[in-house]
Amino acid sequence: MSFSKGLLVGGLLGTAYALLTASTTGPKRQQAIARYLNELSESSTDVQQSAVQLQTASQNLSNELKTTAVTSLGGISDALQTFSFEAAPRIAQIEESVDRLTQNLKK
């Protein structure tokens, strides 16, 4: 059952309960029911507006994450390429030193 259907069923059940258990009659009861239904209508409108705002906010967040992720991944990729380029000579020098040490240990 969706939230709006549950809200409607709850409102109807609450109204029926209020009618059956209320000690007031006539115009007072009508005013109370009218007030209750107005409040229920306003509350359901507020819930709908909040749902729309939540949907809009989640869409904005999703778009922002997509944009940020693409930009960040580009920056990370560039940084990795720069690091690899700058580290390659040092790695080659370390490998050469390890080879020389290995050869000297074998002697």
Automatic annotation (TrEMBL):
One Pfam family here: YtxH
Superkingdom of this protein's organism: Bacteria
Protein known as: YtxH domain-containing protein
